[in-house]
Amino acid sequence: MEFISRFQLQLPPAGSFSANSHHAAVLIPIICRPEPTLLLTRRSNHLRKHAGQVAFPGGKADHDDRSLIDTALREAEEEVAIPASSVHVLGQLAPLDSSSGYQVTPIVGLVPADIAFHGNEEVAGLFEIPLHEALRLSRYYALDIHRGGFNHRVYLSWYESQFIWGLTAAIIRRLAQQVTL
């Protein structure tokens, strides 16, 4: 409970503006080890979008999903075999707009350490990063780029041999801004 109390999560304000009309959600799975970790995936190289990139399990909302929490839990079960019933949802971060046209809502959830994670065909590999490392703001480097007539800030980070950037890095950085360790 003391660990959970460090999360200062809240629901985003109603009617928040997004340039994207398509909705998606990702699960930020915090694995409840003696030293908590974040579970991340490396997307398969054969995928049309974001091939080979580090990502959280997640995807677009289906009409059958009752909420974006359901979307994140369904996608995590499909992609990395985390049973939805085993996730203790702590809350969500404000949505972020992705470069692929989706408004992505990150859902933060605690996952028991005894689950046997394994990826489906969309996942080339899984790895964990210690939560205290992931939430260290100094590990994220900003890169300002000009694309499509607009300026964009992209965040970059590394953990061991893993290159974490783009939306995934922005989500972890946003989480770090809202959690006190």
TrEMBL record:
TM region(s), chain numbering: none
Pfam families in the cross-refs: NUDIX
Annotated protein name in UniProt: Nudix hydrolase YeaB
One GO molecular-function entry: hydrolase activity
Keywords: Hydrolase, Magnesium, Manganese, Metal-binding
Family statement drawn from the similarity comment of this UniProt entry: Belongs to the Nudix hydrolase family. PCD1 subfamily.
Organism: Yersinia aldovae
Keyword Manganese appears in the UniProt entry: yes
Domain Nudix hydrolase: residue ranges: 21-151
Top-rank lineage group of the source organism: Bacteria
Needed cofactors: Mn(2+); Mg(2+)
